[in-house]
């Protein structure tokens, strides 16, 4: 395609010229090789140039310059939460059994990284209900757990009490003494 220079207002601008499509010829030589050329030869057949597909240009608005994200200052009320990479119950293990002698008292340790943000609390849910919470990453204590199966899960709580993030639940089994069982160590001996 030929390019011409247009002088306008003292500037040289490149402008595309319309170039007519040239004629293409196809011929097969005595050796059976197919040849294409823009000059005719003996036995050559003229080929019609392929039509070029085109679509009208879209009317696109000029791109806007992106604005810088606003960064809250030290006096800002903006609350930006970054999810924790690690949020899990480290102890007890999933499927643990709390024996009869423990009396339903359980110490739960959390694995959390990075540590909770200032003002956030780490909570412990038992069967989907918030049972206790602490500031920081200290141990969480449960007392008087009823006999049976329970689901435990950690939650990160905002200062407003809103749940920001949840861990996967674990299941524990609590064994408690029963006055109805003959082997109950708390049952008084018959007279």
Your description of this structure?
- The chain is 0% helix and 39% strand.
- It is elongated and about 125 Å long.
- The chain has no helices and 14 strands.
- Mean pLDDT is 75; it is low at 1-19.
- The chain is an all-beta fold and 191 residues long.
- A hairpin with a 5-residue loop joins strand 12 and strand 13 (163-166).
- Strands 7, 9, 10, 12, 13 and 14 form a six-stranded mixed sheet that branches. Strands 4-3-5 form a three-stranded antiparallel sheet, with no helix packed on it. It has a three-stranded antiparallel sheet with strand order 6-8-11, with no helix packed on it.
- The protein has strands at 3-8, 11-16, 24-28, 34-37, 45-47, 86-91, 97-98, 106-113, 121-126, 129-135, 140-142, 148-157, 163-166, 170-174.
Keywords:
3-stranded antiparallel beta sheet; mainly beta; 191 residues; elongated; single chain; 6-stranded mixed beta sheet
Average of per-residue pLDDT values? 75
Global Rg: 40 Å
- Stretches where pLDDT is under 50 for at least 5 consecutive residues are 1-19
Q: Describe the main β-sheet briefly.
A: 6 strands, mixed
The overall strand count is: 14
Order of helices and strands: EEEEEEEEEEEEEE
Distance between termini?
115 Å
Query: β content, as a range?
Result: 35-45%
What topology emerges from the helices and strands here?
Layout: E1 3-8, E2 11-16, E3 24-28, E4 34-37, E5 45-47, E6 86-91, E7 97-98, E8 106-113, E9 121-126, E10 129-135, E11 140-142, E12 148-157, E13 163-166, E14 170-174
Parallel strand pairs: 7-14
Antiparallel strand pairs: 1-2, 3-4, 3-5, 6-8, 8-11, 9-10, 9-12, 12-13, 12-14
